[in-house]
């Protein structure tokens, strides 16, 4: 009878190679803590991973934009606070002039000129190269006090479109304020009225300017309320996206991650099998015809 070990060798070799492949996979899972570093290794769960990764990236992008918008709103709020302080100072000085405490209004005129420069600077503030008060796509310096007359918004050279954040692909969340807002127009009108005084004004004129400043202060306060509401809305968007990202990352881990202890034990078991397979393959490979005839 003719005895051949070729068929047995082929079977054992194929089995050993399969065990070796399983061992390599187990070691990789142990070191990477992932079931597979490629989508192909996740079988039917690959689609879910791709979808979650896409949603996670979109959420991170939205959160980043919302944080930038929130920063812009904070800068706008701070600038308006500074403008409101200017208005309050102007009211104090006008009150002194009306009461007769100050007879020389030249200082008031000079202060008004300086305040106009300050307001222009505050309204031309930028963040990351974008104008905070210039509207979406507006130029970096939307306010030029050399333009326009005593009233109106001719000083404004920015965009006519508000900043907006697309929250769900169809619903825009507008934020920020433009430098042509009524509150700023009123403030600038009052400052220009002070700046343009050439002689000692009568009480009625000073009172009218005072009233204009008073109205401006109220309007500036309402703008700050609007910005506060916008800040709350943006914070809600950021919080919602943060919660979603935690959920998505957890879901991805449940699909991709492995239990390290379990992976280590599995690798050890496969290593034992692999050693046994190598031993069996070595023994069969070294068999001779004499071994079969004993």
CATH architecture of the largest domain: Up-down Bundle
Helix content range of the residues, please? 55-70%
Question: What's the helix-strand series?
Answer: HHHEEEEHHHH
Top CATH class of the largest domain: Mainly Alpha
Structural class: mainly alpha
Q: Strand-residue fraction?
A: under 5%
**Strands side by side in the biggest sheet:** 1-2
Number of helices: 7
- The CATH superfamily of the largest domain appears as f41 fragment of flagellin, N-terminal domain
Distance between the termini: 14 Å
InterPro entries: Flagellin
GO cellular component, one term: bacterial-type flagellum
Keywords: Cell projection, Cilium, Flagellum
Protein name: Putative flagellar hook-associated protein 3 FlgL
Can you walk me through this structure?
With 294 residues, the protein is mainly alpha-helical. The protein folds into two domains: 6-33 and 258-293; 66-252, f41 fragment of flagellin, N-terminal domain, CATH 1.20.1330. It is built from seven helices and four strands, in the order αααββββαααα. The two termini are 14 Å apart. GO terms for molecular function: structural molecule activity. Keywords: Cell projection, Cilium, Flagellum. This is Putative flagellar hook-associated protein 3 FlgL.
């Amino acid at each position: 009878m003719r005895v051949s070990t070729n068929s047995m060798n082929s079977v054992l070799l194929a089995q050993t190679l399969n065990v070796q492949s399983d061992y390599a996979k187990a070691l990789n899972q142990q070191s990477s803590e992932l079931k597979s570093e490629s989508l192909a290794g996740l079988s039917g769960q690959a689609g879910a991973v791709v979808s979650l990764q896409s949603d996670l990236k979109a959420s991170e992008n939205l959160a980043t934009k919302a944080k930038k918008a929130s920063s812009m709103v904070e800068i706008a709020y701070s600038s308006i606070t500074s403008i409101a302080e200017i208005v309050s100072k102007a009211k104090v000085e006008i009150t002194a002039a009306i009461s007769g405490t100050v007879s020389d209004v030249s200082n008031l005129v000079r202060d008004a000129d300086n305040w106009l420069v300050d307001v222009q600077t505050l309204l031309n503030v930028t963040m990351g190269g974008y104008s905070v008060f210039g509207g979406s796509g507006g130029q970096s310096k939307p306010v030029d006090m050399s333009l326009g007359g005593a009233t109106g918004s001719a000083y404004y050279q920015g965009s006519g479109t508000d900043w907006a954040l697309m929250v769900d692909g169809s619903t825009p969340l507008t934020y920020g304020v433009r430098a042509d807002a009524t509150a700023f127009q009123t403030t600038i009108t009052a400052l220009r009225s002070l700046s343009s005084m050439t002689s000692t004004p009568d009480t009625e004129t000073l009172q009218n300017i005072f009233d204009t400043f008073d109205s401006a202060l109220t309007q500036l306060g309402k703008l700050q309320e609007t910005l506060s509401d916008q800040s709350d809305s943006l914070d809600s968007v950021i919080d919602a996206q943060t919660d979603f990202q935690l959920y998505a990352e957890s879901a991805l881990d449940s699909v991709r991650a492995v239990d390290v202890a379990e992976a280590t034990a599995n690798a050890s078991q496969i290593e034992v099998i692999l050693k046994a397979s190598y031993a069996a393959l070595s023994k069969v490979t070294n068999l001779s015809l004499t071994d079969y005839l004993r």
